[in-house]
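Recall from the previous lesson that a structure prediction takes nothing but the amino acid sequence as input. Here we apply that procedure to DMSO/TMAO reductase YedYZ molybdopterin-dependent catalytic subunit from Kribbella shirazensis. The sequence below is the only information supplied.
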Amino acid sequence: MATFSAGFTGRHNRSSPHAELPPGQYETQDFPVLSAGATPHVPVDAWRLEIGGDQGVVRSWSWEEFRALDTEQVNVDIHCVTRWSKLGTTWTGVPVDALLSDVDLDGDFVTAFSYGGYTTNLPLEDLLDGKAWVAFEYEAEPLDPEHGGPARLLVPHQATLGR
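The prediction returns the following tokens.
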């Protein structure tokens, strides 16, 4: 059985009139969904955010604990590796700095894991100093599963893979 992702349809102008777009990107008003498989629907009562390393899980939050943390609203442009860009998006989330504040950090890189099995490796410095959030709202609405909800890692200065 094949999985069709609506985010891969259509043709787009390769040039952009927007100076803020990286070369080769096109602006979209939509929010394409790009997925290699079925979208996981994780109920918030089963959701957990865990931070760990070689020593196992060192910090963990339930949805209620996570939502009780201080949050920030950020307005950022997002750029997908598949060449679309969405300008001026508004997200609400918990700064990664706050999540890591009482964690002993001993490496230069991290691996982020998702419920759907997607992983990505990032330099730790890309997550610190106000550069990343675990977002749970997009445009003042709960983040839907098709876009990584109930919460997703948001690192706006890095290109995303759409979800």
